[in-house]
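Work Package 3 (structural annotation) set out to generate three-dimensional models for the target panel prioritized at the project kickoff. During this period the team completed the workflow that converts sequence records into discrete structure tokens, so that structures can be stored uniformly alongside our sequence database. As a representative example, we reproduce one entry of 114 residues exactly as it appears in the project archive.
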Amino acid sequence: MSQRDDKIEAMIAEAKKLGLNISDDLITKVVIGLGPSVYKKASELVSCSQPKELETVRERFLKKKLGLTNSDEELDSAIKEVCETLGTSNRAKKRVHFYALLAMKFNKESVYDA
């Protein structure tokens, strides 16, 4: 198995453990879409306590990648909701799950279709 396959398998297992309703297919596509960043500890996680990090999620993922034009307040609210879904006590919020949940929230899973 390749390193990417191992990462996909680990993300699918963790999503199931957390009770997240994310399809294996979407997790696979998000892992592939994130490229090498999923292998680096610093970029693999999203820190909900870091305003700069959340701004990056809003600007680079929601607006740029997903092409959303919603107000910053609405996008920030969605980010906060995902932070809560992944658990306030969960210090290791994986970017893969974070992005998949946001894509699902805004019905933008098709962004990951090749």
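The radius of gyration is 13 Å.
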